[in-house]
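Recall that a protein's primary structure is simply its ordered list of amino acids. Everything else, from secondary elements to tertiary packing, is in principle encoded there. The following example makes that idea concrete.
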Amino acid sequence: MLTDQLRIVLGSSKVFSFKALTFHWNVVGPNFHQYHDFFGDLYKEVDGSIDRLAESIRLLDEMAPTSLSDLIKLSVIKEHYGSATPASMFQELLDDNDAILKALMEAYEAADEEEQEGHSNMLAERMEAHQKHGWKLRSLLK
């Protein structure tokens, strides 16, 4: 069901954006400024998509999740605890990004099956954004 898949994407996006924000706060090292800006930009882009994802659930006359704990439970990625090196931050976000792309593809397929073209278009835009995030994260790890 499309709404179930959208809830997973929504929860995963919220966990991802918060993780990028905490990496933005806590990154250290000689490339601090570059990495701090990168994580901040990543957070802002993904966080900026969350309202649209929630509203897409409402457009289907369903309720969006109403608590952070619900969003975390729905997420295909896990929260981050503790400190990390910049390289491990990039790798963790790359792995998470791949998981979100998979969830987006499943939601896209559900939208296609249910003939929800507007939702398909929105999900395609999110897939493109996450493909770009993946490219940047992979480039930082080389």
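Residues 2-141 form a domain with the Ferritin fold (CATH 1.20.1260.10). DSSP finds five helices and no strands in the chain.
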